[in-house]
Amino acid sequence: MAVTLTPAAAQQVQQSLVKRGKGVGLRLGVKQSGCSGLAYVVDYADEILENDARFESDGVSVVVDREQLKYLDGTSVDYRREGLNAAFRFDNPNVTDACGCGESFTTRTA
Description:
This protein has helices at about 5-20, 70; strands spanning about 5, 25-35, 35-45, 50-55, 60-65, 75-80, 85-90, 95-100, 105. By secondary structure, it is of the alpha/beta class.
């Protein structure tokens, strides 16, 4: 089981943590949302909790609650700039369907 960052995503997280002045890495999760069921939640991890799985990717820790790992296992997180927009993008092999607007998704385990 693993969640990885591309070099661009790792660089963005490292820069954000330095600017923020604290944190141990990136926290990735899911929440109920949208018409397809789940949406990604991206935040800073200020600590590693007892039920967290921790992955190292390009020198950055990625933290995922073990109960949510079934939705995220194998996911690669990228960071892309397109024109004036910049955002994290997710390549999740567990996604079986997504809504038309791209806001939410369904997995085989949901």
